[in-house]
Every structure is written in structure tokens, then in C-alpha cells.
Amino acid sequence: MNELNMPNHIGIIMDGNGRWATKRGLPRSAGHKAGAENLKKLCRHINKLGLNYLSLYAFSTENFKREVSEVNYLMNLFIEMFTNDFKFLIEDNVKVLFSGRREGLPKNVVKAIEKMEFDSKGNTGTVLNICLNYGSQDEIVDMVKKISNEVKESKISIEDINKELVNRNMYYELPPVDFVIRTSGEMRISNFMLWQSSYAEYYFSETLFPDFNENEFDKAIEEFNKRNRRFGGN
To answer: Which of 5, 47, 63, 93 is catalytic?
Structure first.
């Protein structure tokens, strides 16, 4: 991997946990647990590769439409992950951010994510942006409201609005996503970082996320290195 060009910012749409479990005759919760275990190994691997920014689609705003039992299981899994299982990220110098609306999340989930952000705020390694209760259209709406308030309060004028100002008013000011990976064979974006991924390359893997291991990730990076990024040019 050392001779390959690493993207600056990778986004991963982690899909297929439920189908992984169903194929094995297991409850969907078993798939989510397996996905979390795989994510731990993948995060360690990615951090060793020296990636600057990694954004993960963990839970969309639309995911609240799932069965109540599944949503409750996921919320408890997030608390366990962010309180205990993923403490190694802080020790590994990873700076953790959470993009998404805090409103609507259980108080214990909000407490866990705020503590993880606080404990890792001084870290200088890979920036891990976890998209939780996230929808890109909602992020854009929230950005418009923030900028509108600044105009209303005469902090800025209409003429001050440009792409840089828009980016600064997203949930976090992050660099463009260069490479988006989606697992499980689905070929859609699902409302993931639409603004940030305007010129991203996309990679759709047939592998379900619990099986998307380090080797599968490396294959994706090899594919990225074959792409000719023209950013709208010829």
C-alpha cells in the first residue's frame, strides 16, 4: 500500500449488516454487532495507512423508520461503541467528530458522542467524522439557516456568501471527499455528504460490510489509483 496514492478524504457508506445476518439465519442485530467488530479492525488499519480524513455513514435520519427494536438495539450499540469499544481511537491519536442532528437522539447517545469529541479534541492524527442521525439534505438546510441568521443579524452581507462560507457552515468544516466507498452492491448515494462529495470518485463493492475487511479496503484504494480525476475537465 505504501506505493499507492491515498486519498485525502474517504467516505464509507457501511451497508449490508442486516443482509449479512439474514443470510446466516441470524437476527439483524447480529449483523450490526458484526459490522461494529469489523469497523474496529478497519479503523485500526486505515489509521496505520495515514489517511487524513475518514467519514463514516453510521445512521441516517431515515433509519429511524426501521423497526423500533432494531433502532433501540443500534442506539445501545452506539453507546457501547463510543463509551468502551472505540476508546482505542483516542489512544491512537484519532480526532473524532460527529456530524448530524443531536435532536432526536437518546440523551445517553448524545452524552457518549460529546464525551468522545471532548476526549479526542486535542488529537492530531486521522480525523474520523461519524455521520449519526445524518442526512445531507438536512445538513444543507441547517447550513442555510445559519447563514440566513448571520445575514439577518448583519454579521455578513449577501455578497459575502460563497462556497468557502457555505463549507464553513456545514456541521464541520471538512475538505472535499475524494473517494466514496459503498458496500453490499447497492449503487446509490443515500443522502450522504452531497456537498462534500461533488467531485468524488465512487466505488461500489459487492461485499457486505461485516466482510469488508482490510484486504477489501486495499482493493478499493488500488481502484482509486486507476482513476483519472478531471474535476469537470476533459
So the answer is: 63
Catalytic annotation, pick one of 15, 47, 129, 169: 15
Predicted TM-score (pTM) of the model is 0.95
Provide mean pLDDT across the span 175-203. 97
Of 62, 66, 84, 81, residue with least CA distance to 28: 66
- Residue ranges of alpha helices (H) inside 86-227 are 88-91, 107-120, 136-152, 163-168, 214-224
pLDDT tens profile 2-18: 577 899 999 999 999 99
Q: Is 142 a catalytic residue?
A: no
72-81, Cβ contacts within 8 angstroms, sequence gap of 24 or more: 73/29, 73/32, 74/32, 75/105, 75/106, 75/108, 75/109, 77/32, 77/33, 77/36, 78/109, 78/112, 78/113, 78/132, 79/108, 79/109, 79/112, 81/36
Residues 6+ apart with CB under 8 A from 22: 28, 31
Task: Say how many CA atoms lie within 13 Å of 180 toward its Cβ.
Answer: 23
Q: Is 38 a catalytic residue?
A: no
